[in-house]
From TrEMBL:
Keywords: Membrane, Transmembrane, Transmembrane helix. It comes from Suillus placidus. It holds the Pfam family PAP2. The keyword Kinase does not apply. One of its GO terms (molecular function) is sphingosine-1-phosphate phosphatase activity. It comes from the Eukaryota. Residues 33-149 form the Phosphatidic acid phosphatase type 2/haloperoxidase domain. The keyword RNA-binding does not apply. SMART domains: acidPPc (SM00014). This is Phosphatidic acid phosphatase type 2/haloperoxidase domain-containing protein.
Length: 176
């Protein structure tokens, strides 16, 4: 990371750490099966992105950072953060706020959507990806989130019912 970068780009270059920490905090705080399901979907989307990336093997923009060479198509950051933004927005529009969270949590898209936009832009500005690579990542993330959310809403294969049963068992085990 170059020291000549604007502060906002330096911060956005640390997105993985920030998002992982915030996600873990929400999961641990709510102990929600729905949040665990969401996190599982995000991890699966990231894994699918890595598989596609290794199949396509398109190089990143030329970098002289000395970092290990990895492929750039699709952008993993773009796919994962777009998964987050899409899923969170759909959840806020169609699901009740989890009881452990304040009612203001329904306004999460007001923060998540612009943050995602900034992350996607930063991947190109930082020289990590090209525009087509972040466009592919964004498309992958939106498609994965839409599919994953539909599975939850339709209770496909009893996924939602099972998750709620597991959440109830965990809560009783924890004495809540």
């Amino acid at each position: 990371m170059s020291t000549g970068l604007p502060l906002w780009l330096k911060l956005l270059d640390q997105t993985s750490k920030i998002v992982t920490t915030l996600t873990a905090a929400v999961l641990l705080y709510t102990r929600s099966a729905g949040v665990a399901y969401f996190v599982t979907g995000a991890v699966l989307c990231a894994a699918l992105g890595k598989l596609i990336k290794n199949a396509i093997r398109q190089e990143r923009p030329l970098q002289h950072s000395g970092r290990k060479v990895t492929y750039g198509m699709p952008s993993s950051h773009a796919s994962t953060c777009t998964f987050f933004a899409t899923y969170i927005t759909m959840a806020c529009l169609q699901l009740p706020v989890h009881p452990a969270l304040p009612s203001s949590a329904m306004f999460a898209p007001v923060i998540v959507l612009p943050w995602t936009f900034m992350i996607v832009i930063s991947r190109v500005r930082l020289g990590h990806h090209t525009w087509p690579q972040v466009a592919a990542g964004t498309t992958l993330g939106a498609c994965c989130a839409s599919f994953w959310f539909k599975l939850w809403m339709d209770d496909t294969a009893g996924v939602k019912t099972t998750a709620w049963e597991v959440e109830g068992m965990v809560r009783s085990w924890l004495g809540q």
